[in-house]
């Protein structure tokens, strides 16, 4: 090709007209592909708003089924091991779910402009009682053993300008008084024996004790994470030890399961540990894979948690003994957010 | 000597491009603008949904996402320099830019095929970043080489306005798709790929491959120049050496001024965060803040470019940074409510309109045509690195001393930087204050 002058910058063959026709034809084909694919995808989608077909019953393990398109809540008997079959589907559609004693907490996301997220409080028949509009990506959900105290965490992101920085917003709802703390970030925090102030504190993964007042959570600041013990009535929090994320209190309130960073970087960074609150000694559980989940206690001896499933696409729920013995077992194929209703 | 050369060239081009004199920009600029518009729809669609896709659909932790996202930032800077250099060698701007556009388009298919595999996603993201890094400098060089020097501001204004239109439409298209398909992320990737491919085809069909020798020259009588012109298409043509750029005083001044100003820019994310803290509005409106600033940018890009052509590019470039300074001051002042929100978004939009394309128009005349892409790459990389340092510094200052002090520091730093840049920047676009 020879250099051209600007006045005939479209000069060499083919002519401008034929190039316009070619690009228009290509655009039509591409538009056809895009529209066809979108229509097919829309057909695959099913209504996420169907009412639930079962309630919260004792002795059942509830979870988010990732084998269904809309992520509906399903359940199996807690006693049932293995990945097998007696699953009942048809619950509400949630990104994250937890339930205890007649109260369910369902974190939803609804696409739109802008997309919206909700925390939906459910009764013992899994009917909607209260809906709270939120921003961000649903992440952690917990209900206290009595069903009174609710807490959830959202990743405040989804905005293109935010780039790689994630921050969290954790809310606490008292269902008896209806009092909602939208963002617990302002709770007075004591770290290393001193009142601690920093704009970068982030809380997540709250777990409540039996008295519905004491709670444990993760706080992160300046690149480190800590286990904090909080008090609702006094509205204060104290950091107990570092390198703890996503605590989960055992039903008898004597131990905390949490994930601990065992490696820098992103390759298998976390392992699941159990901390004895009386001796303050910790031990790893038998699971050797990196666990990025707030573990759920199925009973005083057993932990359940989600792991990336086969092929990496879906998640599976595994369980293992809390005392560190035995081997992990695959509990539910294609599931996340385990919650045993006792 | 410079003045004489450029004046003569400008007159010559005036006769040739009489059509372009009155409000119109050259065909290749419009074509490149259209390519950017379509490509930005494609890329912003994906950018808007990726965090959601990773965390909700794949169950990746934010840490992993942050790692994948941040991994390639350093790489992009190097790739950009390589892209500029490769484009200058034999004038292959269109080829290099087209390769970058094609790579980014293909990365959408990579995302689709990767499924949930972290390695595959990492590779797809890397391909997208490399494509973006490679194409930017050759594209801006093409714009500058297709326009007479006295209409550069307008040309870049038109290009940036079209580019921003795509950036505004992209997220809307993506969220509409997710809404229509109940979160079918694969549909977003497929549609994004279609837009990306269309952009590549438009580039191939409508952007001229070689630059016109009749176009006005940059005012650089480099010794190897005439030889290069004659031997441009021959393999024996001397390589453009990037280091020579730094020997050009005018270029050095622009580079240092841009880096100085970049190092005093705290980053949009912080501005939006500060706005949200001050106003405490419903957080669901948070994602709309950047759209507000982008809309202002879109509306003012062309007028700012025209103004730059009339009064010299130095003035709008400095004024844009003064507007940004105004935004910082507004956040410190006891303003509240709507005036604060609208004021800050308006000033941020003015800042982008008056600086982004204008900087390219400012630097083009002081870099020889043979090194145009390399020069723009060096400038853009320098500015980006300076901004990276500034964002990190502001984050640290916020953590250490609190937001008020950090913002006061930012105001002082930007004031000093504007003053420094006013001294450094060449008085007129054509007189560089010294010869090579």
Could you state the CATH homologous superfamily of chain A?
A: TolB, C-terminal domain
CATH architecture of the largest domain in chain B: Up-down Bundle
Q: How many domains make up the coordinates of chain A? A: 1
Which architecture of chain A per CATH? 6 Propeller
Beta strand % of chain A: 35-45%
Strand content of chain B: under 5%
Give Rg of chain A in angstroms.
24 Å
Assembly form of the protein: heterodimer
Largest binding interface between chains? A-B, 72 and 78 residues
CATH fold description of the largest domain in chain B: Growth Hormone, Chain: A
Largest beta sheet: strand ordering of chain A: 12-11-16-15-14-13
Q: In the CATH scheme, what's the topology name of chain A?
A: Neuraminidase
For the record, what CATH class of the largest domain in chain B applies? Mainly Alpha
Overview of the molecule:
Chain B: Residues 28-431 form the Major facilitator superfamily (MFS) profile domain. Chain B: The chain crosses the membrane at residues 109-127, 164-182, 188-207, 254-275, 281-303, 315-334, 340-363, 384-401, 407-425. Chain B: It is a multi-pass membrane protein. The complex is a heterodimer of chains A (342) and B (436). Chain A has 342 residues and is mainly beta. Chain A has one domain (39-341): TolB, C-terminal domain (Neuraminidase). Chain A has one helix and 25 strands. Chain A has one helix at residues 16-44, and strands at 60-65, 73-77, 96-100, 103-110, 116-122, 128-134, 137-143, 149-155, 168-174, 180-181, 189-191, 194-196, 202-208, 214-221, 224-231, 236-242, 245-249, 255-261, 270-276, 281-284, 296-299, 302-308, 315-321, 329-332, 335-341. In chain A, the strands form six sheets. A six-stranded mixed β-sheet of chain A has the order 12-11-16-15-14-13, with no helix packed on it. In chain A, strands 3-4-5-6 form a four-stranded antiparallel β-sheet, with no helix packed on it. Chain A has a four-stranded antiparallel β-sheet with strand order 7-8-9-10, with no helix packed on it. Chain A is globular, with a radius of gyration of 24 Å. Chain A starts with 15 loop residues before the first helix and ends with a strand. Chain B is mainly α and 436 residues long. Chain B has two domains: 27-206, Up-down Bundle (Growth Hormone, Chain: A); 242-424, MFS general substrate transporter like domains (Growth Hormone, Chain: A, Up-down Bundle), CATH 1.20.1250.20. Chain B has 18 helices and no strands. In chain B, helix 6 (93-114) packs antiparallel against helix 9, helix 8 (152-181) runs antiparallel to helix 14 and helix 12 (249-262) packs antiparallel against helix 18 (403-424). The termini of chain B are close together. Mean pLDDT of chain B is 82; it is low at 1-21, 213-238 and 429-436. Classes of the chains: A mainly beta (342), B mainly alpha (436). At the A-B interface, helix 1 and strand 7 of A face helix 3, helix 4, helix 8, helix 9 and helix 13 of B.
